[in-house]
């Protein structure tokens, strides 16, 4: 069955590959160029547990946390008895290290040494045979101002597990983003007015000098973890509750976080316009994100910690 899974991954990749091949994918430690974006690669692959990481100066940001979260996702997603070996983070890490090294080496041999977005997928068949795959692409730039978000979308069924099926499930939300009159950087998932997270990010409001962010019903992102550590160190109070839109007039700011964005202050918050299914909604609040604001201070503090929270693949002191 494992041979069939490897064949399926290879066949799908070849079917979507063109003569222009700006990216690299790997199955286990065997890498090859591909024209597929990370999103297309995930959609063309068997469903499984995935994670997206970033490189920094030859290391991977929060690599141990990515391994642990992927092991946790496998534990939640795989049927009893399947993929049992890879719920052990130490065993999983050895496999992920191999795929990471292969895909990074192959990318840099062709494209050079820019910082990368690394996507990893662990899938399994009915017999519990597992496949570990990886994808490398350039790390996208931080979005330019103004950063706009809109509340439009319901919570995920199992937010704690990073299931690659979510990449296809969120496609309607991404279509709404593309159809907006002005760029919307992220769509926020809410439940009865309480914002849990974004379609690809964690979300935070600043209320009365406190950082308010959902403590459950969300995916615990690696940048979120760092942001909360920074708040604790700087003695910035944190409230683990979903920010409530009914209190938006009291918000002093809000932020989103993800692998590529790090911690990013939001300039404008929108909600759907009445009777408008696709176009950008109505402006709810504009926020101060200038130097000196708490949102900007938090962004700077998190960005300054990326190097210290990056580690070598393989657990040694060397670089990728």
From TrEMBL:
InterPro entries noted in UniProt: Aminotrans_IV (IPR001544), Aminotransferase-like (IPR036038), BCAT-like_C (IPR043132)
Species assigned in the record: Pelagomonas calceolata
UniProt keyword Protease present: no
Superkingdom as given in the UniProt entry: Eukaryota
One Gene Ontology molecular-function label: catalytic activity
Protein keywords: Signal
Name of this chain's protein: Branched-chain-amino-acid aminotransferase
Span of the signal peptide: 1-15
């Amino acid at each position: 069955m494992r041979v069939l899974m490897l064949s399926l991954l290879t066949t799908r990749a070849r079917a979507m590959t063109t003569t222009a091949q700006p990216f690299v994918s790997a199955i286990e430690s065997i890498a090859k160029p591909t024209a597929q974006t990370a999103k297309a690669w995930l959609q063309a692959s068997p469903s499984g547990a995935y994670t997206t990481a970033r490189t920094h100066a030859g290391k991977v940001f929060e690599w141990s946390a990515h391994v642990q979260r992927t092991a946790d996702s496998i534990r939640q997603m795989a049927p009893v008895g399947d993929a049992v070996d890879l719920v052990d983070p130490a065993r999983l890490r050895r496999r992920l290290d191999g795929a990471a090294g292969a895909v990074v080496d192959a990318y840099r041999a062709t494209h050079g040494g820019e910082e990368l977005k690394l996507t990893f997928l662990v899938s399994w068949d009915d017999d519990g045979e597992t496949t570990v795959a990886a994808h490398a692409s350039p790390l996208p730039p931080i979005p330019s101002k103004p950063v706009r978000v809109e509340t439009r979308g319901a919570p995920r069924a199992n937010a704690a597990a990073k299931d690659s099926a979510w990449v296809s499930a969120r496609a309607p939300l991404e279509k709404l983003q593309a159809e907006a009159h002005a760029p919307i950087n992220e769509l926020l998932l809410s439940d009865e007015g309480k914002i849990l997270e974004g379609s690809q990010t964690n979300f935070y409001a600043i209320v009365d000098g406190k950082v308010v962010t959902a403590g459950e019903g969300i995916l615990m992102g690696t940048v979120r973890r760092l942001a909360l550590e920074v708040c604790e160190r700087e003695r910035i109070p944190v409230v683990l509750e979903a920010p409530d839109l009914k209190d938006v007039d009291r918000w002093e700011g809000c932020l989103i976080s993800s692998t590529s964005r790090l911690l990013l202050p939001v300039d404008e918050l929108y909600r759907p316009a009445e009777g408008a299914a696709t176009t950008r909604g109505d402006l709810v609040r504009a926020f101060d994100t200038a130097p000196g604001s708490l949102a900007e201070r938090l962004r700077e503090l998190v960005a300054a910690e990326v190097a210290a929270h990056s580690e070598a693949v393989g657990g040694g002191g060397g670089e990728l």
